[in-house]
Every structure is written in C-alpha cells, then in structure tokens.
C-alpha cells in the first residue's frame, strides 16, 4: 500500500469518527459501541433477550474482568440489568433495560441518518463504485491476512 492510500484511509477513519461523534451529540449517553455489541450478541446468542455474562466473555474472547468493567459502566448508566439465576446463584444474566433499548435505538437511528447523508452526498453511481472497490479491498486484505497466518504457522 503506498503512502497516499494509507493517508487516505487514516483521513477517512478520522472523518468518519468525527461524523459519528457529531451524530451522537445531544443524544442519550449510551456507550454505543459497547451497547450495540451487547445488543447483537444477545440477538444472536441469547435467549429471551438475555445472555449469561460468562457467555459474553467466551463469544468475544475477552477476559471476564474486561467484560465486567464494561457491563458495570452500562449498568451504572441504567442501560442494562443483571439478574442472578434462581436455580444457580453463580450464573448471572444480562439484558438491556427498557432505557437501554430506547437509547440503543435512538443512537442507531442517529448513526444511520449520518450514513444516509454521506450516501446521498456521494450519489448512487459513486456509491456503487465505492462499494465495488471496498469489496475488492476487503477481499485483498482477507487474502493477505490468510497468507500471513500460513507464514506464521
């Protein structure tokens, strides 16, 4: 990758982060990346809108302490609820609170509005070209990463 491509990717990353941050200003304080990750995990792996804390660590391949810290922040802000399994007091479940679901929805809608604005600014033809190039870039990165894995084995 030449330095121009690298610089463009870094610039894009910076500007996207600025847009994301601006989109969430004046919205609910929802720690969106963590809340959204939990929302998706519960949706894919949970039961009845809940998931065991231990399962979050396993699914994300994270240390339990790291998961616990993140869940504490979300719990302190009223975004999640922890409950203990009445049949096995060692097992703790987590679910989004009503406020957490509302905050997640509002933040997600704000981010989707940002993405839609960018898409409209690009126009349909440029958006199509961009998606084709991003697909090719993604495939190239996957191939390079796979080859690196073979070299490290």
Can you characterise this structure?
By secondary structure, the chain is mostly helical. Helix content is about 75%, strand content about 10%. It contains six helices and three strands. It has helices at about 5-25, 30-45, 55-60, 65-75, 100-120, 125-150, and strands at about 50, 80-85, 90-95. Strands 1-3-2 form a three-stranded antiparallel beta sheet. The mean pLDDT is about 95.
Q: Spans with pLDDT under 50 lasting ≥5 residues?
A: none
Following the backbone from N to C, one meets helices and strands in this order, namely HHEHHEEHH
User: What integer is the average pLDDT?
Assistant: 93
Rg computed from alpha carbons, rounded to a whole number of angstroms: 19 Å
- Count of helix runs: 6
Largest sheet: 3 strands, antiparallel
Characterize the overall form. globular
In the sheet with the most strands, the strands line up as 1-3-2
Return the structural class.
Answer: mainly alpha
State the helical fraction: over 70%
Percent of residues in beta strands: 5-15%
Number of strands: 3
**Amino-to-carboxy terminus distance:** 24 Å
Q: Can I get a quick summary?
A:
The chain has 153 residues and is mainly alpha-helical.
Write the layout of secondary structure elements.
Elements: H1 3-24, H2 32-45, E1 51-52, H3 53-60, H4 64-76, E2 80-84, E3 92-96, H5 98-122, H6 124-152
Helix pairs in contact: 1-5, 2-5, 3-4
List keywords for this structure.
mainly alpha; 153 residues; 3 strands
